[in-house]
Amino acid sequence: MNYSEEQTREILLQVEKSLQSHLIQKNINNPIIIGIRTGGAWIADYLSQSVKTEGNVSYLNISFYRDDFSKVGVNPKVEPSSMPHSIDDKHVILVDDVLHTGRTTRAALNEIFDYGRPLSVTLVVLVERNGRELPISADIVGEKIELDIDKNIKLEGPKPLILKIINT
Amino acid sequence: MGEEDKKQDADLEIDSKKIISQKDLRHFIDIEYLSKDLVIDILDLAESFAGVSGQPVKKVPLLRGKTIVNLFFESSTRTRTTFELAAKRLSADILNINVDYSATKKGESLLDTLKNLEAMHCDMFIVRHPSSGAAKFISENVSPDISVINAGDGRHSHPTQAMLDVFTIRKYFNNFKNIKVAIVGDILHSRVARSLIHALRILEVPEIRLVAPKTLMPVDIEDMGVKTYVNMDLGISDCNVVIMLRLQNERMNSSFIPDIHEYYKLYGFSPERLEMLSPDGIVMHPGPVNRGVEMSSEVADCERSVILQQVSNGIAVRMAILSLSMQP
Q: How many CA atoms lie within 13 Å of B255's alpha carbon, on the beta-carbon side?
């Protein structure tokens, strides 16, 4: 099954709504929003339009924190991280497109802590799929799906944003 | 020029005519065999690494657990320390071996030194050597899982310096489409100039000029696609980038210039010469600068001089080269 542009937008709206009530419930004001390049960065841009955040969106390129460098090497074409605001004693909203093995989130957390010590980190993902390899779970999830091991789901964008299921 | 020098130049000429396009880095020995895509990849990756120096924790864990050896058979401050910092910012362990103090002085052969280092499970050798071809020789004699980086070999090549120079140029001009670059000074003895000409050609810089007295200009260098000038004022006129080279006294075994003052008058970068550049023109120098010989202090310290940015950029560029060489 594939997602249309409309269906992707509905999932995005769901994420936006859940995040807003989560922030109210946890009494989090002016968080720092950080998108993981590239898919998470697009979603962070979208969420920053409705969520009141501290400054502009920050972006992480987790390439240098991956655990598979000795297997796959480094991709020179990903834009560098851009973290213009101090995250010390701030609430951080970490945004990614898909939560799969949990390794990207692990790498992102490690990188975040090289920039400072946040008060909290809330993990927001558009899609959560089966296949976790690390003890990581998301706080806000737009859609949960079960996929065969030879299938992947990825977000294409930035305009329009469309979720696509592909064979690996 | 001595017989040995002539032979060396002949060898290099043959080398540069080989048409090989290297698509990935195992060893980083020469620039001329790299494809344009690979050169751009190195520059792009260096751009990503440049941010690491601005992080509160100036380190990424990419090469954690790797052991890199700085194997220097010739003195160096900038190159050795920036390689060391690059390795440390990638979380690798680095060993500095200065050959003046090592076993080769006690009669151990180069290959024995290498075998001993291999036995210590090192992953990479960064080699600086006074003989041309030393890094290549080492790369051909180490076990296949070890990478070798050339940090300067004799008069032949200094590829990481050339990469940081083109990185610095791209920082100022974004691309290489419409720029004129002049390299001024002791071209004959300069490994930096050789590597730089190759890098600029690969990146398709439209105009590369070399400015030097006849005694310091290699014969037939125009074959490399450059224009040569004996008159500095004409050579730097309207250039966007001027790269000054150091007078290499330690590599001169006969008299190439009449005297230092005369040299400064004819080929030194004086403040008046700044006016001759294009209005956006920048001045570079690979260091160390002989103030008052190839360049006045006023020019070395002026706003258009990017000598210190070159040093900072050297760390990011070397991080990119180390990681691309270490990847599978």
A: 4
The string of pLDDT tens digits covering residues B236-265 is 999 999 999 988 766 555 567 777 888 899
Cβ of residue A24 closer than 8 Å to a chain B Cβ:
no
Among candidate residues B249, B246, B227, the one with its CA nearest the CA of residue B238: B227
Angstrom CA distances, B262 to B213, B253, B323, stand at 11, 19, 45
Cβ distance B286 to B311 under 8 Å? no
CB contact under 8 A, B324 and A61: no
**B175 vs B148: CA distance, rounded Å:** 29
Task: At A63, list the tokens.
Answer: 């390439």
Report the 10 Å Cβ neighbour count for B102: 15
Q: Are A75 and A38 in contact (CB under 8 A)?
A: no
- What are the backbone angles phi and psi of residue B32, rounded to the nearest 5°? -65, -20
pTM: 0.88
Asked if B197 and B166 touch (Cβ cutoff 8 Å), the reply is: no
Question: Taking CA atoms, what residue in B is nearest to A66?
Answer: B62
| pLDDT tens digit sequence for A48-87 | 999 988 888 999 999 999 988 888 888 888 788 999 999 9
